[in-house]
Amino acid sequence: MKTFMKSLFVLCFALVAVTFSANAQGFKGIITYSMSYSGNIDAATAAQQPKLMTVYIMLNKAKMNLALGPVTLDVVTDGDKKESITMIDMMGEKKYFRSNQAEIETEATKNGAPVIRYLDETKVIAGYTCKKAEYVTKDEDDKETVTTVYYCEELGGENANFGGTFHGLKGFPMEYVINQGEIITTFTVTEVKKGKVKETDFLIPADYVELTAEEKAQMKAAFSGQE
Questions:
Q1: Is the CB of residue 121 less than 8 Å from the CB of residue 127?
Q2: Are 141 and 115 in contact (CB under 8 A)?
Q3: What global pTM score does this model have?
């Protein structure tokens, strides 16, 4: 279970990336992703994985919500302040930490700026015509990873991906694949609901306690495999 939770948490920190900081079109609404799994994963393990991810968007603010078994993760990104707030509810123990612009930008470019190849192919996803791109990144060993992503400019522009998995992409990511070793996770937007989002959706609940700088560093190290 510890290994399972660690792999999920690593995925979630990658998905902080998928919080969308600023929206050129002024979109307000709720976007729902389905999550499916393939590769070297048995049916029992696949059944334990999260199946849905929800993103709430109000102009320059966004909140990603993901349930990971006994853990619920909420990540709020403020595109005006260029900061994010990560809230973790682990079986009733509720903690949060903040990341400022410098931290976000350092993390996004630590292995060099991504290369984005925009292609002519399109695909209709959740009723929106999306364009295809190949997003190329490198890891600490200079190994290249190419991620295929379909994006929608109608729901967000380049600023919408500030500091995230698709840093610099000029549209909202509607479908993409993340490889975790031999396990492949596919994210696909299944529903876009306009409206029904309010300012209070982005606030930190009163029962959450802020981590100290040391606790924040320890948590990130523990779930990135550095501890």
A1: no
A2: no
A3: 0.83
